[in-house]
Amino acid sequence: MRFLRTQKERAHDLVPAELQHYLSDRIHVADWYPTADVRGLVMAAARILPVEDPLAFMGNFLAQEHAGGVYKRLHATHDLDSLMRRSGSMWSSIFDTGEFVVTREADQLHLRVTGFEDASAEICEVAKGYIAAAVETSGVPSPRLEKTACGARGDSLCAWVCRLPPDLG
């Protein structure tokens, strides 16, 4: 949101009329906003951001903001076991629907979101960037997430697999 406000003139042309109030209203970090609204704002920001993959970039940026800000306690311990324990809290700090669970099987992390009512390709890419950053801060260098299921494509859940390096597997 702050980014769109710094680009107010450009954002005004890209943000749908019903979402224009976000460019001036006070935003409360700990409040939830309708995912449809977030999606509209994310799409506007993606058209302005000068990066190759703006949606993943936004997710990564959000994870970094959380790690140093209001959700610092969720990111305080940097290991895979704590990632698996705190994954549900991480998800619910952003969305008010769905459950995020991380499990580990041998040399893979399985990351699943079930019950997410507002799945869209755009929000999924932001979530993927966020999750990749969270996995990286948990000790997995340059994690690569492979999408195995997508609620936006009609699957019953959103899921990724992250292969672990040999020294972590």
Can you tell me about this structure?
With 169 residues, the chain is an alpha+beta fold. The protein contains six helices and four strands, in the order αααααββαββ. A four-stranded antiparallel β-sheet has the order 1-2-4-3. β3 and β4 form a beta hairpin. α4 (54-68) crosses α6. It starts with a helix and ends in a 6-residue tail after the last strand. The model has no long low-confidence stretch (mean pLDDT 85).
Task: Summarize the model shown.
The protein has 169 residues and is of the alpha+beta class. The protein contains 6 helices and 4 strands, in the order H-H-H-H-H-E-E-H-E-E.
Number of strands: 4
Query: From N to C, what is the helix and strand string?
Result: HHHHHEEHEE
Could you say which structural class the secondary elements and strand pairing correspond to? alpha+beta
Shape: globular
Biggest sheet descriptor: 4 strands, antiparallel
Poorly predicted runs are none
Question: Strand order within the widest sheet?
Answer: 1-2-4-3
Termini gap: 38 Å
- The fraction of residues in strands falls at 15-25%
Portion in helices: 40-55%
Separate helix tally: 6
The chain-level mean pLDDT equals: 85
Radius of gyration: 16 Å
